[in-house]
């Protein structure tokens, strides 16, 4: 993996995929009983894009996240605005952290790039406490 590829993948993970999940968590913190279809669609789209791009370690975490989103899709067939369950959120956080750690380790070859991507991450990282609002 070259530096440009690493930058693109790490940004995709933190800014887009983790960001979409972070937005879901923020929405559920405001309205825990329902989750907007647009947020679910964005999260699933970001999962699909990341899964297509990522070939690194902890690939099973990508598959596990996909299974969580599929389970939520099945729940939504019975109730169109079904939120993620508490166990879905807990498991997803663990898988996101595993992927973050793997990507962070991959960036050891490119410390300046890794630091720059982390410094600009609008939603923080899965290894940090969740931010209340990414814009604050």
Task: Tell me what you see in this structure.
With about 140 residues, the chain is mainly alpha-helical. It has one domain (about 5-120). The protein has helices at about 5-30, 35-55, 60-80, 85-105, 110-120. Helix 1 packs antiparallel against helix 4 (about 85-105), helix 1 (about 5-30) runs parallel beside helix 5 and helix 2 (about 35-55) packs antiparallel against helix 3 (about 60-80).
Outline of the structure:
This protein has about 140 residues and is mostly helical.
List the helices and strands and how they pair.
Layout: H1 3-30, H2 37-53, H3 59-78, H4 86-106, H5 111-119
What structural category do the secondary elements indicate? mainly alpha
How many structural domains does the protein architecture include? 1
Shape: globular
How is the main sheet built?
none
Q: How many DSSP E strands?
A: 0
Radius of gyration: 15 Å
Runs in which pLDDT lies below 50 for 5 or more consecutive residues are none
Kindly, what is the distance between the CA atoms of the first and last residues, rounded to a whole number of angstroms?
34 Å
Helices, by number, come to 5
Give the DSSP E fraction (strand runs of 2 or more residues): under 5%
What is the residue-mean pLDDT, rounded to a whole number?
93
Helix fraction, binned, reads 55-70%
Q: Give the helices and strands as they follow along the chain.
A: HHHHH
């Amino acid at each position: 993996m070259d530096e440009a590829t690493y930058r693109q993948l790490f940004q995709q993970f933190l800014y887009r995929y983790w960001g979409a999940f972070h937005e879901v968590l923020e929405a559920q913190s405001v309205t825990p009983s329902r989750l907007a279809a647009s947020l679910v669609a964005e999260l699933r789209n970001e999962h699909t894009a990341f899964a297509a791009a990522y070939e690194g370690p902890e690939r099973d975490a990508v598959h596990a996240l996909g299974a969580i989103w599929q389970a939520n899709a099945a729940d939504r067939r019975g109730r169109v605005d079904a939120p993620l369950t508490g166990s879905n959120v807990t498991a997803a956080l663990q898988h996101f952290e595993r992927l973050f750690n793997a990507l962070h380790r991959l960036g050891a070859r490119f410390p300046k790039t890794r630091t720059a991507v982390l410094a600009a991450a609008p939603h923080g990282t899965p290894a940090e406490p969740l931010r209340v609002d990414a814009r604050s």
